[in-house]
Amino acid sequence: MTAPQKPPLAATKESRITLAEPRAPRPAAQAKPRKRHMSIMLSFWLAVVAPLAVACSYLYLIADDQYVSRVGFAVRSEELSSAIDLLGGLSSLSGSSSSDTDILYEFIQSQQLVERTNERIDLTEVYTRPEFDPIFAFGPTGDIEDLVEYWQRVVRVYYDQGTNLVEVHVRAFRPEDAQLIAEIVVDESSQLINRLSAIARTDATRYARADLQMALDRLKAARQAMTQFRSETRIIDPTADLEGQMGLLTSLEAQLASAQIDLNLLQETARESDPRIRQAQRRIQVIRGLIEQERAQFSNKTRNTNGDDFTTLVGEFERLTVDLEYAQTAYLAAQAALDTSIAEAQRQSRYLATYNSPTLPQSSRYPERLTLSIIIAGCLFLAWSMGILVYYSVRDRR
Predict the structure, then answer these.
(1) 3-class DSSP assignment, residue 365
(2) SS3 (DSSP) at 65
(3) Phi then psi for 114, rounded to 5 degrees?
(4) Which residue of 42, 118, 261, 268 has the fewest C-beta atoms within 10 A of its own C-beta?
(5) 92 CB neighbour count, 10 Å cutoff
(6) Cβ neighbours of 353 (radius 10 Å)
(7) Residue 394: in which H helix or E strand, if any?
(8) Cα Rg of the chain (Å, integer)
(9) CA distance linking residue 285 with residue 359, whole number of Å
(10) Helix/strand/coil for 75
(11) 73 Cβ partners below 8 Å, 6+ apart?
(12) Under a CB-based contact definition with an 8 Å cutoff, are residues 151 and 172 in contact?
């Protein structure tokens, strides 16, 4: 029997080398869903898909269409130039449009407007018209606070403080109801502005009448003081009285000088027994007597019953004259102010200017079904994702 031959040395090395090479890894087995995966999918359907389906069903099948009526207006103010500007340099009273607009902005959202609107149109009937709409329809409770809260949801006010323009959007389940409520809002807002304007006009007239009465009392007091001065001194006008007295003395002194000249001429040409000389001398004596008499009267007139001299009387008279002139000027200014206030009260200085009348909607704009569906889906998915992350974070820490 022949013994087996040994393989060559080279073949032995190759086989050894082949046996030393690593084997290729086996392919991974197909992943199978586990219990936790099924729980995640179930939670996704329960937390996201099911609520979203309910919300979309409500939005597209149950929620009624809502129509929007838009109206825009602004508060305008008229400024009047007053006649008192020419007399006293004062300005007439004028209102502030921005302040009135701020008041109007708060009034549209107030309980007072809701009550007045509810008196003119039954808001409960208007907003409970859908038979079943638990979210967008009004659930009557009988409390005015709930109605005001719902009013602020369906009546939106947009106020541009830069231009002082107000735009109101009124929603309702019928187009004519939305337009009617918008018209009521405009009418009540106009009445509010008229009341504010009437109050301002009444205040302006009342203040003007009070100023006129004060000026009249001052004028009466000044005139009474002047009358009392004239009664005590028995002088109507000290300056005119002094001028008249001085004029009379000047005239008498001129006559005395003329008579003295005539006497000197007669004494040069006639004899001393001439009767014309005695007559001229008699005339001079009479004129001198009149001058002394007038000077004595002037001296007596320079003092009153209180012993005041003529300078003091003139100063007192000038003071009373200035007071009387000032009182007369103030009275004229107050009278002009009252006339201006009355003229301003006869016209409407503030009014509501509507630049966009209440519109009658032709198609519904609310509820925004697609937008709400996307928002609800995003919120549900975000909440579900955060819940899953929190769950696994707590699970990995154990």
Answers:
(1) coil
(2) coil
(3) -60, -45
(4) 268
(5) 17
(6) 12
(7) helix 369-397
(8) 54
(9) 108
(10) strand
(11) 165, 166, 186, 189, 352, 353, 354, 355, 356
(12) no
Q: What token pair was written down for 372?
A: 């709400």
Structure tokens at 360: 């009658």
Strands of the sheet containing 350-356, edge to edge, are 155-160, 165-172, 67-77, 350-356
Q: Which two tokens stand for residue 94?
A: 């004028």
Contacts of 320 (CB under 8 A, 6+ apart): 222, 225, 226, 229
Torsion over CA of 306, 307, 310 and 311, rounded to 10 degrees? Answer: -90
Both tokens assigned to 37: 């995966």
What is d(CA 74, CA 168) in angstroms, rounded to the nearest whole number? 11
CA–CA dist 214, 205 (Å, integer)? 14
Residue 181 CA to residue 108 CA, distance in Å, equals: 12
Query: Among 181, 224, 229, which residue's Cα sits nearest to residue 69?
Result: 181
Instruction: Encode the chain (398 residues) as per-residue pLDDT tens digits.
Output: 445 555 554 444 444 544 445 566 666 556 565 666 688 888 889 889 999 999 998 888 888 889 999 999 998 876 554 444 444 443 333 344 447 888 999 999 999 999 999 999 999 889 987 777 788 888 888 789 999 999 999 999 999 888 889 999 999 999 999 999 999 999 999 999 888 888 877 877 888 888 999 999 999 999 998 888 888 877 777 676 666 667 777 887 888 888 788 778 777 777 777 787 788 888 888 888 887 776 665 555 554 445 456 667 777 888 888 988 999 999 999 999 888 888 777 665 678 889 999 999 988 888 888 999 999 999 999 999 998 888 888 877 76
d(C-alpha 48, C-alpha 338), whole Å: 74
Q: Coil, strand or helix: which one is 307?
A: coil
